[in-house]
Amino acid sequence: MHDDVRLFGDLSAITRDSTQLDLIQRRVQQFILSFGRRPRILVCPTDPVARKQTINHIGSILAQWGFDVDIGPIEKSPEQIARMALENDVHIVVIFCSKNLIHQETTELLNALKNLDASDILVAVFGPSQEFVKGSGSRSNRFGNADLIVFNPKSAKDVILMLDNLTRKN
Amino acid sequence: MDAQYYIDGVLERKRGVIAKSITLIESSLPAHQETAQTIIDGLLPHSGNAMRIGITGVPGVGKSTFIESFGMMLVAQGHNVAVLAVDPSSSRSGGSVLGDKTRMEKLSMHANAFIRPSPTSGTLGGVAKKTRETMIVCEAAGYDVILVETVGVGQSETRVASMVDFFLVLMLAGAGDELQGIKKGILELADAIAINKADGNNIERAMEARSEYVSALNLMESKSSAWAVPVLTCSALTRDGLKDIWATIHDHRQKLSATGELAEKRRSQAIDWMWSLVEEGLKDRFFKNPNVKGQLQNIVDTVENGMTSPSAAAFELLQLHGK
User: Fold this and answer.
1) Number of structural domains found in chain B
2) B154, part of any domain
3) Is B147 helix (H, G, I), strand (E, B) or coil?
4) Residues B113 and B191 in one domain
5) B15: which chain A residues are within 8 Å (Cβ-Cβ)?
6) Which residue in B97, B103, B106 has the most chain A C-beta atoms within 10 A of its own C-beta, making it the best mutation to test that interface?
7) Co-location of B78 and B31 in the same domain
8) Which of A53, B80, B238, B307 could form a disulfide with B302 if both were Cys (CB 3.0 to 4.6 A apart)?
9) pTM to 2 decimals?
10) Do B101 and A63 touch (CB under 8 A)?
11) Residues in chain B with pLDDT values less than 50
């Protein structure tokens, strides 16, 4: 089974657990009080395997958590994704990709954001396991001026960690 | 960053600064709102020269595809186009899912286009205020055509119609919804109606729908003596009819400028804007009032339990606010 399909299952699990959902929603409320808006996230399937329906479903789950979600078109270049992220002024871009592409995809996207002077936008990866990325570096790699966050939410803790990360950055 | 940084950046049409200025406008933090106000005041003299066009239609009518084709036609003619999407699908408690750009693939990548979908959840009637101010930012940045997209359900189209020069209503042929009562309100707002998806096998039905709308409009009182609302057909797919729509918008502008109605429309929109700001400000103050805050939940509960009548409760709340 493809990674993002497995992950989609994980997202649903959090949402079905009202305690976990409540934790996330309360953290989002805090975020709104600090920043004047919801955390805004651009979900970008860079991999053709990531079907539109899956992406839309993930989008609605993130919205239920309290995020404002922009859905990017499938298979766009890093420059195109970066422009969309800049224009919509999102806090975070989530890309979906398979294991063999993760390093290339994220490096390119981070560079594209840097070229637009938008290094304040976080890049997160859905898909590969944390262990895999750990193997290629650390949990939070530095790429130039930007952070790469590995986001594989099995519990509310992962989501809250990501929001904490955003809060530190802004 | 101070307000001047944003003002300068917007005037230089720096994409990132435009985006961040819009974020400040949309922010609920008082400090952000204050900066946003200074930005707007600084940009206001540079705005007002754009064509402001509202576009509405029921979900499925093909608004995004229409804007993609229409916008691409305009940038090809040398225009700078900003698209503001208002009132996308949003759930009440959570955030919004904003997917518009997925259907505006070419336009969203064009150097002379700027597309910004705005979430509406959690705003207390603030949509109109924010979109108006966002429009000013885009105009000051040199975008000379502003397309405001809104879903043709609920009240957002009335709000959008009150802030644009031209309101285009997209319709579908043969969707079984022609001339139903619910559409009447929307027809009253229209400056033109376009039957979309008039392509392939659908052309004939589009023409039929067109004549139905024409006769329906004949029964309605016209908004302006200088303008009879035309019904057009178009296809965002084949791009047929798009040029006619643009010509219609120009024609409308010329005719209403000549009679002074356009200037009058903008003046009365400015007054509307002022009142909507006053309303929002009052609402805001009401909810922030400590007397109200302290008693609000109790009073709501008594109404819910049937212990107090709604009117008595409203009176009590307003008294608390006046204290």
Assistant:
1) 3
2) yes
3) strand
4) yes
5) 83, 86-87, 116
6) B97
7) no
8) B307
9) 0.86
10) no
11) 123-125, 181-182
pLDDT digits (tens, 9 = 90+) for B37-72: 999 999 999 998 899 999 988 778 888 899 999 999
Query: Is there a single domain that holds both residue B178 and residue B214?
Result: yes
The CATH label, of 3.40.50.280, 3.40.50.300, 1.20.120.610, 3.40.980.10, for the domain at A3-169 is 3.40.50.280
Q: Looking at beta carbons, which residues of chain A come within 8 Å of B9?
A: none
Dihedral sign for Cα atoms in the order B119, B93, B283, B286: negative
Grouping H, G, I as helix, E, B as strand and the rest as coil, residue A40 is strand
* Residue pLDDT, tens place only, B251-293: 999 999 999 999 999 999 989 888 888 887 888 889 889 999 8
d(CA A112, CA A80): 9
SS3 content of chain B, % helix, strand, coil (to 5): 55, 15, 30
Answer whether B228's CB lies under 8 Å from B222's CB: yes
pLDDT at A11 over 70: no
Kindly state the average pLDDT of the residues A3-19. 57
A-chain CB neighbours of B108 within 8 Å are 73, 83-84, 87
Summarised one tens digit per residue, pLDDT across range A65-114 is 888 999 887 667 889 899 999 999 999 888 876 666 767 777 888 889 98
Q: Which residues of B touch A119 (CB under 8 A)?
A: none
Q: Say if the Cβ atoms of B96 and A32 lie within 8 Å.
A: no
Domain boundaries, chain A: 3-169
DSSP string, A109-135: HHHHHHHTT-TTSEEEEESS-HHHHHH
* Predicted local confidence at residue B299, as pLDDT: 94
Return the CATH number at B5: 1.20.5.170
Q: Does the distance separating the beta carbons of A89 and B119 come in below 8 Å?
A: no
- Are B94 and B104 within one domain? yes
Shortest Cα distance, chain B CAs vs residue A15, angstroms = 12
Domain range spanning residue B10? 1-46
